[in-house]
Amino acid sequence: MPSVTIYPGSPLYGLKVNIWEPLQLVLTLPPGGRVNLLVDQASARVVELQQANLQGENQFTSELVSDYQSKMSAADASAHSINDAATKTAAYQRIASATALQIQILKQVYEDANPGQQYSVLAAVNLATFEHQTAIQILTGGEIQAPAPATPPTMITTFSVSESSASSSSVRSQTTTVTTSTSSTSTNTWTMSSPSTEPTPSVSLSKMHRPFSSEYARIF
Questions:
Q1: Less Cβ around it within 10 Å: N or C end of the chain?
Q2: Of 195, 208, 197, nearest to 170 (Cα)?
Q3: SS3 of 21, please?
Q4: Burial environment of residue 180 by CB neighbours within 10 A (0 to 12, 13 to 18, 19 or more)
């Protein structure tokens, strides 16, 4: 991960991200060098995000995540545009190794972030994981192609209502099951209930994917 000396909130931070970093990209001509620079700038956003989270400066989370996503997407696009096979391989090796470290840090930031910021951090985790898996696929002999957008998971909903009568009261029970199909197998279940004298909803949500399962892409 790159060394960071200027963090969000510093008077110099705007100069750093709006002038200095774009100037570096303009002056970097070789495609491989441009990929490395974009990856370094994206990694700097991750380090800054971690520091901001430690300092409780959550107002910077969305901006840092957005810039991280922009830099990593640009790095992947630059790597994909390289024609020389050796240079392309080196570029994706750089992406694979950098995203492996980014995922570790972003996972920790997600776990420590307050609920209002976790959604933004999760978006960064998902992108880092996607870019890592793409780079590994290419390096292990997969066909080199432009990354496809993520497909929303298929959702199947089953709804059933049953009614029975008792001497003292009429009891209705309602069960709703929502199953989201993904590639993972871990599940979580939440159950809510009310006193037996009232209508008793029982909601069971079976989620086939957690933000951080043990099946992350292998570390390059």
A1: N
A2: 197
A3: helix
A4: middle
